[in-house]
Amino acid sequence: MLTWIGFIVSLVAILLVARRSLPLALLCGALLLGFFTLPLLTTAQLIVQTIVDPSVLLLGFAMGFIPMIGGTMKESGSMDDLVNNLRIGKKGVMALAPAMMGLLPMPGGALLSAPILEKGGIGVRDDLKVAINDWFRHLFVLIYPLSSALIASAKIASLNVYNAALYLLPTFLFALILGYVFLLRKVHGRIDYEDAFSLKHLLIPLSIVLIAPVLDFSLKRFLHLPVKEIATLTGVATALIVSILVSRRRLDLLRIARKMKPWNFTLIIIGMFIFLNVFKASNAASLIGSIPLPPLTLCVVTGFILGVATGRIILPASIILPVYLTHGVITPVSFAIIYSSIFFGYVISPVHPCVGVSIEYFNVSLKDFLRLLIIPTLIIFVLLLALSIILS
Fold first, then answer.
1. Torsion of CA 46, 47, 52, 55, to 10 degrees
2. How many structural domains comprise the chain?
3. What's the CA gap between 100 and 2, in Å, rounded?
4. Residues spanned by the domain of 174
5. For the chain, percent helix, then strand, then coil, each to nearest 5?
6. Model pTM score
7. Which residues fall within 8 angstroms of residue 53, CB to CB, at 6 or more apart?
């Protein structure tokens, strides 16, 4: 009972405190969960271990560089060049920009697409920009065979990743329709282009945007780095340097930093990992897994809960899929249902980094973000739940 109380209280605290500060909200959530489930000394040790963890610190610093890339591109006019020469219409720009960033294996990529949505979505409400940025960024990742989460989850289930992606296609198409109905349909107007199309002015800002994820992926793939986040930090630092060097205007980096507040994004990452490590050390995950439901239904319900609670896919999958395996072989259909449930819990999770950095960038409340995405997410969850009951 104490574990359930601690888990619920921690999530409520995150939602409430996030109105003022998301990093503080994550820390409060971790402290409350630890208070109910762990010895005080253990919670303190987990916090210290997280703060001194090189991978967490490097990722945090890298996350701080990303809004600076967007800030320099805005100030230099590169973002204007990108939007003005990406001639696919207003709805197209707002959907494709986050989708393109989402397919690139880059932590915090939501911060790269956010400035594009800000510029291309003039006249669109900020909360709608955040919702579109989050939904369409992750939608294509659901079926992307090179997604680390899908690869790892398919491996746990002993499935071919391309076969798994094929069975996830119906969920993807349904979610794409929901994204249009609930989000893109609310985008009105058009982008007025004053100048003629320029391939040069399209490729230069596009190259800046792509440098970070390409370097991140390449260094991780071809070098044996002691800490993989070195690749991420190298990628975003290089992109920032290039964005400064190609600027046609003199940039005031201190003024840009005051406006973009990169330290907030670093603290979000640290707070997120503190909560995640406390959650993993508590017995909350095993308690959730003990709920008396049929195996497939249990995995759908607990998978969604863990996706929301952790802001992760691989962690819930590593907990839920083995639970199902104790009852039998995971079929591609069962995998698609379970994975989709985890995935969409992750998409709207308050502790999901892309959610945190997007609402921070656009200065939108977590409540307004959830108000837009809760209905399409629940529609998908209810459908998955119904399928799990029918197939159980």
1. 80
2. 1
3. 43
4. 2-188+196-391
5. 80, 0, 20
6. 0.68
7. 273
